[in-house]
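tool=predict chain=A
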Amino acid sequence: MTTLLAAFVLGTPDPPALADFYRALLGWDEVDREPDWVRLRSPERERPGLSFQLEKEHRPPAWPSGPGDQQMQAHLDIQVDDLAAETERARALGATVEEHQPQDDVRVLRDPHGHLFCLFLPGA
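tool=predict ok
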């Protein structure tokens, strides 16, 4: 039996808009676009990809979360060479930097639809 992680899927109220953000952030190629579904792929590798599906009732997680809050169930970790420059580039694309930062060599941000993601330096 062979298994392969094919994609990570984010639910969002606007799949095309969120895909555009991550396409610009990651430099990935769009391989499929429908109003309710968009799929991105790295130009260097076919898998895993990043997909976006319509989720009209999406609620962003709390960070850090407390009792009764919408929990963060998953997030993307994105390795960068220059943490300050890539944080500013992500902000220019529409991301926001979270107030709570657990480490000096990691930045916790939110994409335009509220999903948390981390930028981190090699070795972090």
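The helical segments are 15-26, 83-93. The beta strands are 7-12, 29-34, 37-41, 49-54, 76-79, 96-97, 106-110, 116-120.
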